[in-house]
Write a structure and sequence with these properties.
By secondary structure, this protein is mostly helical. It has helices spanning 4-33, 43-64. The protein is elongated.
């Protein structure tokens, strides 16, 4: 859908922004949601919250793919 030089730039941008900025913020979300009333991190609760956060991120990404544009059928030059 896009020329080769733009694909590499887009992939690098997505990996760095998604993996480093957005991804690390979910560690804070998981830790915040896993705090028990006595301010102790229970290992089971941390595991369950991490699974729930991971599933929620996956679900949002899956649903968002339905709004992506379809590529044109024409051949693009590389």
């Amino acid at each position: 859908m896009y020329p080769t030089h733009l694909r590499g730039t887009g992939e690098s941008f997505a990996a760095n922004m998604g993996g480093r900025l957005v991804g690390t913020s979910f560690a804070w979300v998981t830790a915040t949601l896993a705090i028990t009333p006595d301010r102790v991190y229970a290992p089971t609760k941390v595991a369950m919250v991490a699974a729930a956060v991971g599933f929620a991120v996956y679900l949002v990404g899956f649903v968002a793919t339905f709004w992506l544009p379809e590529p044109k059928q024409a051949e693009l030059p590389d």
